[in-house]
Design brief:
Elements lengths: L7 E5 L3 E2 L12 E5 L2 E5 L7 H13 L4 E5 L9 H9 L6 E5 L9 H8 L4 E5 L5 H6 L6 H15 L4 E8 L7 H14 L3 E9 L10 H4 L3 H14 L5 E4 L1 H4 L4 E3 L4 E6 L2 E8 L5 H9 L2 H10 L10
Parallel strand pairs: 1-5, 1-11, 5-6, 6-7, 7-8, 8-9, 9-10
Antiparallel strand pairs: 2-4, 3-4, 11-12, 12-13
The structure holds iron/sulfur cluster.
Length: 310
């Protein structure tokens, strides 16, 4: 068994997203639309609901008790609730952390209320302190307001719910990071919420984002300096920086296609065939060959709450 609460596996439920951030590993060419909103897709093949349940069962069997639900944008999957209910139906509950761009969740009250009962930690993102600076980073116009609104909603509807804020730090927004901290303090003073961490990510040139590295790249020393300054200025916030060198090999990702992958050399490198066709024994053997990744994943996700509240 690899199981302990610190081994988090990232489930990329979908390659689709309703944003197309140029620094992201995802695709930027719209190839579908939903209700008039363009949808971007970086994996055409996606596991079905039943296939995801099988993958979750395999990971659970080998002892994984912590899942990051991401994509793409996971709320684009109509079976999201069914998949999360499957995770939470296990005898020993697993921790569920969801990474979302808030565009749907801030508008869909019913979905949001349902997720309060299924998600332990909500991960939101601000790359600037206002709409303009987020758009400059490549976010869609509504990104800032949607994330601000979701924080407001959580703070009113479920103030004890754990929230993580993520910020990609790059040469585009490096001078505006402190402004985000000041905004967070202001929001918290208005309506307190349970901010467990503000994570600063050095821009990582991975997959599609690699092509735009000339726009976003920022040196590790500069990044570490910014993270240290922000940490000492906002002592009431748990600020933790993640340099790119730490991101390498620090994730076990299940791709939308169902393969287990690592982040290596700017790519998502598959290390298995789709997990639906692997036995638990084979899966554990493969994971145990990656001891460095196991330690890095544990370190990278040390901030996650150790207790499942739900
Ligand atoms: S960073 Fe998030 S919101 Fe932006 S394209 Fe990637 S998955 Fe979508």
């Amino acid at each position: 068994m690899v199981g302990n609460r610190n081994l988090t596996v990232d489930l990329m439920l979908t390659g689709k997203c309703n944003e197309a951030c140029p620094f992201c590993y995802g695709a930027r060419k719209p190839n579908a639309s939903e209700n008039g909103v363009p949808i971007y897709q970086n994996h055409r093949l996606e596991m079905s609901t039943e296939q995801w349940k099988t993958i979750i069962d395999s990971l659970y069997t080998i002892g994984v008790r912590s899942f990051n639900i991401g994509g793409g944008e996971p709320t684009l999957r109509r079976d999201l609730v069914e998949i999360l209910k499957h995770i939470k139906s296990k005898e020993e509950p697993a921790l569920v952390y969801i990474s979302t761009n808030a565009l749907i969740l801030s508008l869909d009250t019913e979905l949001r209320q349902t997720l309060y009962g299924l998600v332990d930690v909500f991960g939101l993102s601000f790359d600037g302190a206002n709409t303009e600076s987020n758009v400059q980073m490549g976010r869609v116009e509504r990104h800032y307001e949607a994330n601000r609104e979701l924080i407001r909603q959580i703070s009113i509807e479920m103030p004890e719910k754990a929230v993580k804020i993520g910020t990609v730090v790059s040469s585009v927004n490096e001078n505006g990071i402190a402004d985000i901290g000041a905004e967070i303090q202001k929001w918290w003073a208005e309506t307190p919420f349970n901010l467990v961490i503000w994570r600063l990510f050095q821009f990582s040139p991975v997959e599609e984002g690699y092509d735009n590295r000339h726009i976003y790249e920022i040196g590790e020393a500069t990044f570490n300096n910014i993270a240290a300054q922000i940490g000492s200025r906002f002592t009431d916030i748990n600020v933790v920086g993640r340099p790119h060198s730490v991101a390498e090999n620090a994730y076990f990702l299940v791709l939308p296609t169902g393969e287990l992958a690592l982040v290596q050399d700017g790519k998502h490198q598959s290390i298995t065939e789709p997990l639906i066709s692997l036995t638990s024994e084979s899966l554990i053997n493969i994971i145990e060959q990656h001891t460095d990744t196991i330690s890095r994943v544990e370190e990278n996700r040390r901030w996650l709450p150790t207790e499942v509240i739900l």
